[in-house]
């Protein structure tokens, strides 16, 4: 069972080393989940003397006012033989065999954290003591509760200490060691008052009475020790500490323990209770109880640790990888992020993600509708046909068929198709830009680096702009091709005019009559409609080839070329992660390290059992 307490000792040390000592956090802290014994008492209650009696050494700072200004996590390790010594977690390679030096180091380490301002800090000091005269036990010595601030302390110190003590003892895994002087009324005991608030049924509170030997003559502590004055689930334990005179004389702790045993054994009022009195008994009871509590908490600890590891890994995944330090690593990191964005963009076009279907809607609905809205009837109205045919004839009317007039009518009609063609190009361009913005917002890694997100977005839009210009050029060329070279077969298949060869009985100017002109307009309209049908199929092909296909193939090619020429410091400016995110990742990384170590520690103990 002894390795259970050693397990908690190691985990508590790891917690503090990695900055997890019960501070506010969005994730549960391992510190809060570990069973511990918190020592609570008012100033001058004899709290320090109780701890020194349990340890058997004089090692705690003494003086007037608030001496303990940081939590002291006191880890006791029983050794079979050898010289007793102490170690601090903040000085792991230094052994203290002189316990006067331990006292000085506690005071110095307190000042390092709080300065010499007499203020308090919640960051614990870790002290391990190895001795054959101790039981395996861990205690947390908290600042003594006080009612007034001393010179050099803020007015809030009284409430600050109370809040710190409460933050420890209100946790359900905390065992409370409430120190109260027997020569004062229990109703006014600071330790009992605050422990009652957090543990009203006394289910995790051990009551310790000090200064029993200093009670007024004719009075005793029997009612208190037997639980009649204040009932707790566990029996009260009385201790007799060294007097101030003993402390001044540096009276040996072993001798003090012996006198304590003799006091209870020889005092008639306490003789029947002597077997469960004294600091030695207190240490053994606490050690045994702490082992029992730890053993009962192991399944819950394992569950908490496994759950928290998953939560931390999930958040770290969301935060993304840390920034590489070298130029090559930064370039690789940027390229990987860009590929992730490019992959998301392609998935939109390929139908894996929504949005690509809007492009097909342009080809299947918007373009055909726009072509239908072209008003060829106005272009081929009788007056316009007569005007263009006459102008095309010039000073000499056409002899057989008005070929130049046909060409002008067809060209003036087909030119109007450029409008819907350009509109289709622009609409697809707008859709592609929208998909770029969607892909950027869906690329988790880009959220991590605002400057890179802007650069990638700008580079993608610039590429799309170039592709749009090329697409518009190619698409308009399709239209121009149609009126640059007419399909001769269409006209050869038209019904022939019975007066094609001319009739000497009619004037040539009769060819400009309404019936003749209507026939020309009808033929031109049929040809234009045929070309519209052809362009309805070829324009989408041109747009897909020049815009969609190129966007899938080379959206960031130009950006990659420029990226390769950048120096390391310029690459660093693209990876300008929010400092708060960087700090959060570091903090989570440390916590993950802590929980994985804890998982291995607990599993090893569980398997050994």
From TrEMBL:
Top-level lineage group: Eukaryota
User: Which InterPro entries would you find in this protein's record?
Assistant: Dynamin, Dynamin_GTPase, Dynamin_GTPase_CS, Dynamin_N, Dynamin_stalk, G_DYNAMIN_dom, GED, GED_dom
Stretches assigned to the Dynamin-type G domain: 31-299
Report keywords, A-Z: Cytoplasm, Cytoskeleton, GTP-binding, Hydrolase, Microtubule, Motor protein, Nucleotide-binding
**What does the record give under GO molecular function?**
GTP binding; hydrolase activity
User: Where is this protein found?
Assistant: Cytoplasm, Cytoskeleton, Phragmoplast
Signal sequence, renumbered to the chain? none
- GO cellular component annotations of the record: microtubule; phragmoplast
Domain (GED) spans 517-609
State the similarity comment.
Answer: Belongs to the TRAFAC class dynamin-like GTPase superfamily. Dynamin/Fzo/YdjA family.
Listed name of the protein:
Dynamin-related protein 5A
Q: Which organism is it from?
A: Ilex paraguariensis
